[in-house]
Amino acid sequence: MFSVLTTFTKVHVVISLIAILAGWFTTEVGRQPWVVYGVMRTSEAVSNHSPQVLSATLAIFVLVYCTVFGTGISYMIKLVARGPDASLGQAEEMLHRRPARPLSAAPDHVDPAVDLVKE
Amino acid sequence: MGVDLPVLWALIIGFGLMMYVVMDGFDLGIGILLPFVRSIEDRDTMVNTVAPVWDGNETWLVLGGASLLAAFPMAYAVLLSALYIPLVLMLTGLIWRGVAFEFRFKADAAHRPFWDKAFAWGSYVATIAQGVSLGAFINGFKVTGPSYQGGAFDWLTPFSLFTGIALLAAYALLGSTWLILKTEGGLQRRMIALTRPITLTVLISVGVVSVWTPLNHAGIAARWFSFPDLFFLAPVPLLVLVAVWAMLRVLNRAPNAAPFCLALLLLFLGYSGLAISLWPNIIPPNISIRAAAAPPQSMGFTLVGALFIIPFILGYTAWSYFVFRGKVKAGGGYH
User: Fold this and answer.
1) Whether B275 contacts B14, CB under 8 Å
2) Do B171 and B122 touch, CB atoms closer than 8 A?
3) Distance from CA of B87 to the nearest CA of A (A)
């Protein structure tokens, strides 16, 4: 049962992404040649910037995002590979009063408030 | 019903922009000051003073941009098109420093210097880009009909480069005085020492901009130097001098909150000076808030939303600053 669920989850990760992107493509492409449907044409809304300027700035964003997300994913994989902390009870206490941030899986700083609660 | 919608919206956007400049100003300032502090522990403390609040600070930038689109769509179209390249650079800088906030606490010791550099570089690029945009805004834009007709690099002038550098000094002043308020011991002493030259740099920058701007723009000169306006407007530059004098004095007397308050006053005076120079134009040199305004129905409709949401933003902002009040001690991690 557990393995079926795992497979289901793995498949889900991929197909939900495909669904989002496909929906987006359908709206954006299907709306053309309008930028505001029936009101304003895409050709009327476009700025005066040259294709060179627009390509260069797009390239900047692609580069920055690939670096940022690449690094983020590599840090996440590292955290997952390291696994949860040995003492589970302690980990639970440390979750207490901590903001649930995406990169907060590994307890690298102990919340001093937890020690106060113990005393 | 007697409500002057364009004026009201201009005030809302002006207020939002000022909140942004004040609040993101001091956390960008921390990035600007980071290279001047060597010890890893002090650097952690510096970043920790803003870690709980910095992303909320940038809310105001989003509010300003969205309000501009809702209330002054023509200004949104012209300004964002004219300032396309500096704004892209600003966003790139903000993305870099934003992730550096998170990654520098997660990175291995070997990678930390890289993220410290990314944090500083991102802050410098974002600040200079904002200052350059401000300079280009004062210089004005080439507009025909409803759209921007200038080139992609019209923003790049000696004046705009100067305002870019000047804003670095202004944000560094906000950052150093914020750290005087939030830290103690060696780091605080270091910031007190740094605040003196930064204050003088800000004074010189304000002076240069105040001379350079009216020399380039007859209309702005006429506003400041005609009688009897001269008498009503004279307090602005005089108060700048008083604030600088007070800053240099309080720095000698074990300061705490006073320098930050004075830095805020200086910033507010600079902002007022700018508003006096440009009012009522939203696209300098000559397109006013009335000419660029959205239809009254759109302005009224979006005003309801804005007046509803702004008290909430102010409320949670005040709350988060209250929760994280007081001195930040070394090693006391928020993350």
Assistant:
1) yes
2) no
3) 10
Residue with tokens 């892209």: B88
Contact B333 A109 (CB under 8 A): yes
Peptide bond into A107 cis (omega under 30): no
Q: What share of chain A is helix, strand, coil (3-state, %, to 5)?
A: 70, 5, 30
Phi-psi region of A38 (alpha: psi -120 to 50; beta: other; left: phi over 0): left
Collect all residues with Cβ–Cβ distance below 8 Å to B306 and sequence separation of at least 6. B12, B67, B70
CB B195 within 8 A of CB B178: no
Q: Is B140 left (phi over 0), alpha (psi -120 to 50) or beta?
A: left
> Can you tell me the distance from the alpha carbon of B25 to that of B325, in angstroms, rounded to the nearest whole number?
18
Please tell me what DSSP assigns to residue B34.
G
C-alpha span between B25 and B166 (Å, rounded):
13
Q: Does the structure show a pLDDT above 70 at A14?
A: yes
Q: What is the DSSP letter of B279?
A: T
A101:B335 CB<8 A: yes
Q: Who among A57, A68, A112 is closest to B88 (CB)?
A: A57
Q: What is the mean pLDDT of the segment spanning B273-299?
A: 89
> Per the confidence metrics, is the pTM higher than 0.90?
no
Q: Do B51 and B324 contact (CB within 8 A), yes or no?
A: no
Q: What is the mean pLDDT of residues A33-48?
A: 89
Distances (CA, A) of B13 to B72, B91, B288: 10, 20, 14
Predicted ipTM?
A: 0.79
Closest by CA position to B105, among listed B48, B30, B182: B48
B98 Cα to chain A: minimum distance (Å): 10
pLDDT score of A111: 52
Burial code (b: 16+ CB inside 10 Å, e: under 16) for A104-115 equals bbbeebebeeee
Q: Do A101 and B149 touch (CB under 8 A)?
A: no
Residue B261 confidence (pLDDT): 94
Three-class DSSP category at A41:
strand
pLDDT for B240 equals 92
Distance CA B205, CA B121 (A): 22
Structure tokens of B292? 């660029």
